[in-house]
Amino acid sequence: MLHVIGKRLALVIPTLFGLSLLLFLWVRSLPGGPATAMLGERATPEAINQINEAYGFNRPILEQYVTYMGKLLSGDFGVSIETGRPVVEEFATRFPATVELSILALIFAIGIGIPLGYIAAKYYGKAPDHVSVVISLIGITVPVFFLAFILKWVFAVQLGWFPPDGRQDARIDATHATGFWVLDGLLTGEFDAAWDAFMHLVLPAIALGTIPLAIIVRITRASVLEVSSADYVRTARAKGVQEHTVRDRFVLRNALLPVVTTIGLQLGLLISGAVLTETVFAFSGIGRFLSQAIFSRDFPVLQGFILFIAVLYAIINLIVDLSYSIIDPRVRVQ
Fold it and tell me: Are residues 116 and 152 both part of a single domain?
């Protein structure tokens, strides 16, 4: 286990280093220079000089890179131009909201996707299979922002079943200790606040989790079909092993490897792809903050977000690799 962790970390370090170098070169190769890109084409020379002096853009390129790497290694991702606060603080404030949304979206995708994919494979070529294929195709082809608007219009505006935007009703005086508002309500006994925060999560989570749901359905279906035709499964059934044992021990367990890989990748995509969903529902997470940073040309925030997602992907991939040895003992042997 430790060997696997060490090997993966050895691969992650040069990857992050290369990405940091690309980000450094990208900002400094912007038309008119980074200061002009941040301030806009109508920026005055005085304002450009102030930005160059503040961020060190007027220093030698090698000195800039050494300073840049030194700050990154010390956890300094810069200061947001829009808010004037450190990027790390901005992310720490908004990250719990995006995590809550992504976890619920993933639960929605896994909770429906794996059973639906298994049913499709079990009834291959029949009505349940056709229905699941149609659902997965719709889930993949419908854009997230369009689905988000439809869900908001139908279930929030027309029917009034769910709140239309935000994380919680502003009239609720809730305690926010951890930043995870549903968890905060449960820990403090403010169950009305927890329920309200959960209701604010439902529609964005469905919109965000629809594409992962469709992908998980298709991967599960294909994987179960492949495993079901394997020799050891046919042998188990020929020997009279009970169907639920065949399903749990032989089919599902062996079919889960590609599904786990897909889920791990989708979790990273959920967090990085929350921009549109959070914008539509005015959900105060990292995604909405990033969309505002794009329009305001807040490059320190954009750089920090890209590096943050890269680190997150590395951690998720490591967890996925470790989960292989739990699901399939053959991986430990190899």
Answer: yes
Both tokens of 107, joined, read 């639960």
How many Cβ atoms are within 10 Å of 84's Cβ, its own excluded?
Answer: 7
Contact, 219 vs 117, CB < 8 A?
A: yes
Say if CB 11 and CB 324 are below 8 A apart: no
Q: What φ, ψ does residue 161 adopt, rounded to 5°?
A: -75, -30
Phi then psi for 86, rounded to 5 degrees? -55, 145
CA dihedral 53, 58, 62, 63 (to 10 degrees): -30
- Residue 14 class from Cβ within 10 Å (0-12 exposed, 13-18 middle, 19+ buried)? exposed
Structurally, the chain folds into a number of domains equal to 2
Q: Report which residue type is found at 152.
A: K
Is residue 269 domain-shared with residue 120, that is, in the same domain? yes
Torsion of CA 317, 322, 328, 330, to 10 degrees: 110
103 and 195, same domain (yes or no): yes
Which tokens in the block code for residue 118? 């298994």
In a domain, 41, yes or no: yes
Separation of alpha carbons 19 and 40, rounded Å: 26
Range of the domain at 242: 93-333
Tell me the CATH number at 169.
1.10.3720.10
pLDDT digits (tens, 9 = 90+) for 231-260: 666 676 676 666 666 666 667 677 777 787
pLDDT in tens, 151-192: 989 998 888 889 888 888 878 888 887 888 888 888 888 888
